[in-house]
Amino acid sequence: MTDPALPAPPALATQLSRFLDSDLSADECSVLLERMRSDPEARDQLTVLQLVRDAVAGVRALDDGFTLRILQRIERGDRPRGL
To answer: Is this prediction's pTM over 0.85?
Structure first.
């Protein structure tokens, strides 16, 4: 059973975008942060969204291979260890 306070998957991208824009109320932000504590996919989506925003803005990511490893894990559908 899902928690009705959590945004549905299509709404998640919107919530994450609004989070990055600092456009959520304190209550909305609390709900989203709670979701990200327990939802690795939400955390991954936030990471990818931030990387895309940075790329569009011309911000260069550190080239230590971290970003590539994260994107490869997402593509493979890997789960973090211990979850």
So the answer is: no
Give the separation between CA 13 and CA 73, rounded to whole angstroms: 19
Q: Is the separation of the CB atoms in 51 and 57 below 8 Å?
A: no
Domain count, the chain: 1
Could you tell me if 35 and 42 are in contact, meaning their C-beta atoms sit under 8 angstroms apart? yes
* Contact partners, residue 71, CB within 8 Å, separation at least 6: 48, 51
Give the other-Cβ count within 10 Å of 18's Cβ.
15
pLDDT, tens only, 37-70: 999 889 988 988 888 888 887 777 666 677 778 7
CA-closest candidate to residue 16, choices 79, 1, 39: 39
Domain that holds residue 43: 9-76
DSSP designation for 60: P
Q: Flag whether 82 is in a domain.
A: no
Give me 43's structure tokens. Answer: 């955390």
